[in-house]
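Hi there,

I know you've been waiting on this one. I reran it after we fixed the sequence typo, so this is the corrected version. Both the input and the resulting structure follow.
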Amino acid sequence: EVSAKHAAWYERLEQLRNESTERLVTSIAQNVRGAVASITYSTDFLEVGGEEIPRKVFGEALNDIAEASRRLQQMVDGLLDYTSIGPNISVPVQLRDALNRAAGSLRSHYLQGAHKLTVDLAPRAEWVRGNPIVIEQIFVNLLLNSAEAAGAPRIVSVTAFPASALGVARHAPEDPKHVCVRVLD
């Protein structure tokens, strides 16, 4: 009986790992598609417009291409860091965007499902530094755990506020170096 329970537990763990990987790949693919679409659109626009494009519009299109290229580079660096192949990256990550992407990958639970997600980000706690892929994956795992553990529809609340290095402090310094994120269901 113990080995049957262990086998069932191992099978469920493997299923969760596969689902998590699928969500991660889907999220990355959507982000890559958006960046590539932006580059493609802007380059097609410049190619079709030729020499008749006003200098300001030309500059804006080039800026769009450069920004989309930076996003692609960040995604590649994040993937390499995530797989421990490349160098560790630590870039600014907007918490609201990471949470929105996480909830989007769990659409059947939160956006179209019975559960509701609320987000409250205090001033000076909207951004964190880290690998965007890892941060998003942490939120996916936490939100999925909340949804799967629920016997009934529930509200999952995510709050973030400045914190001190020694512990959580709601009265944070003027320039916080740490952010505390709480996920409550």
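Quick highlight: The chain has a mean pLDDT of 82.

Best,
R. S.
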